[in-house]
Each structure stands twice: as C-alpha cells, then as structure tokens.
Design brief:
Helices cover 79% and strands 0% of the residues. The chain has 133 residues and is mainly alpha-helical. The mean pLDDT is 88.
C-alpha cells in the first residue's frame, strides 16, 4: 500500500506540478532575452497589445497553478486554490519584472505586473468555474 501511495504522489507531481515549473521556466527564459520578439512569431508583437500578451501569459500560469493547488496539494490547500493561484502568478510577475530590469534592452514596468495580475485573476477564476465539482 505504501508503494501505491508513493506512486500516486509521483503521478500527481508530474501531472500537476511539472507543467507549472516548465511554464514558469519558459517565462523566465523569454524574459531573459534582450529581444523576445525574435523568439516568438512577430505577428504577436505587431497586432496584439503588450498588456494583452502579459494577461494571457499569466492567465495560463494561474490556470496551471490552480490545477496544481486544487488537485495535488491536499484538501486544506485545495479550498484556497483560486487565491493561491492568483497570488503565486502575481508574485511571479513581480519577480519577472525585477528580472527584466537587469536584462539589456528590456524594461521593468508596474503596468506589466498589473496586466499579469489581472490575467492571473481571469485565468484562475475562469478555470475554477469551468472545472468546478
């Protein structure tokens, strides 16, 4: 029984937490680029507002965090999954803006963080309604 429990925990870690870490790592990687538009399709930067991109980016992060907190962190944490997902994504947004301050040709902007947080709220709350039990 103990091995089955351990295996279940490992499956939960990989299924729920690894996507959070990989996605956060992707955000960090792109933030470390002096010219991220060279890494992504240029259409994104020509047609879509920077703030919308931030909102979508952090909405996805909050969605992934919500999944992990809701279904892979225990019942006490699951009850606060929406709040924890929003706070986690918002705090990561702050660290991202601080990180960009030190990257050549990048800017740190509180309005980007605000867009990150608004996107996180939309992502976590939307996913909680879609996936409510």
């Amino acid at each position: 029984m103990r091995d089955a429990t351990r295996q279940s925990v490992m499956v939960q870690v990989f299924w729920y937490w690894v996507p959070v870490v990989l996605y956060a790592g992707t955000i960090f990687y792109l933030s470390a680029q002096s010219h991220p538009e060279e890494q992504l399709p240029s259409l994104l930067f020509e047609e879509v507002s920077d703030k919308v991109l931030h909102g979508v980016e952090y909405g996805i992060l909050a969605l992934l965090c919500y999944r992990a907190f809701r279904w892979a962190a225990g019942p006490a944490v699951a009850q606060q999954a929406v709040v924890l997902a929003i706070v986690t994504a918002s705090v990561y947004g702050i660290t991202d803006e601080v990180h960009q301050f030190f990257v050549p040709f990048r800017e740190s902007d509180w309005q980007d963080w605000l867009a990150d947080t608004i996107g996180a709220v939309i992502g976590a709350v939307s996913w909680s309604f879609i996936r409510s039990e």
